[in-house]
Amino acid sequence: MGNRPVSKINVDTKQDKKRNMKLKEIIEKLNLTVICANDQFENEVSGGYCSDLLSDVMGNATEGQIWITIQVHKNIIAVASLKELSAIVIVKGLEPGEDTIETAKKENIVLLSSNETAFDLAGKLYGLIN
User: Fold this and answer.
1) Which residues contact 72 (CB under 8 A, 6 or more apart)?
2) Dihedrals φ, ψ of 113, to 5°?
3) What angle in degrees, to the nearest 10, is found between the helix axes of 98-107 and 75-83?
4) pTM to 2 decimal places
5) C-alpha torsion 75→114→87→22, nearest 10
6) DSSP tag of 41
7) Given a cut of 60, is residue 77 above it in pLDDT?
8) Backbone angles phi, psi at 89, to 5 degrees
9) CA of 59: how far to CAs of 49, 56, 63, 82, 83, in Å?
10) Which of 31-40, 66-75, 88-97, 109-118 has the lowest mean pLDDT?
11) Looking at the DSSP assignment, which residues form a beta bridge with residue 36?
């Protein structure tokens, strides 16, 4: 058996199939409610990140992703700005306070909401992008 040639196999990975979508497409297809947004509807979304721990999002989310969370306080805006995320989606019908909305407007962060659970919404977003 010794020195048999090794066949090369092209692997079709999910990463190759992944496509970016416009934020407005995702809002429409997932029936998301816009809490605040300026003119960012044409922004590209590269994926999603689902977490309720700010430190986890700071350490692992990447630019262009949509962040799915139950957090509603204004610190989420600072994290989204730092990581250059496409949007924040607050799930389970939770509503941010006025201070969070005002901070999002000042920082040009898109703030969205959904009545879905984080699990269900993340699954649907995954299905759209992958």
Assistant:
1) 90, 94, 95, 96, 97, 100
2) -140, 160
3) 20
4) 0.86
5) 180
6) G
7) yes
8) -115, 120
9) 11, 5, 12, 11, 9
10) 31-40
11) 111
Using only C-alpha atoms, the chain has a radius of gyration, in whole angstroms, of: 18
Fold of 19-129: 3.40.1390
DSSP element (H, E) containing 121: helix 118-129
What pairs with residue 44 in β-bridges?
22
Do the Cβ atoms of 55 and 78 come closer than 8 Å?
no
**Structure tokens of 83?**
């990581």
Which residue type occupies 46? S
Rounded CA-CA distance 20/44 in Å is 6
Residue predicted with more confidence, 8 or 21:
21
Of 64, 71, 27, 34, the closest CA to residue 49 belongs to 64
Q: Which helix (H) or strand (E) holds 112?
A: strand 111-113
Q: Is 55 helix (H, G, I), strand (E, B) or coil?
A: helix
For the chain, the domains span 19-129
pLDDT for res 100: 98
The torsion angles phi and psi of 68, rounded to 5 degrees, stand at: -105, 125
How far, in Å, CA of 114 to CA of 56, rounded? 22
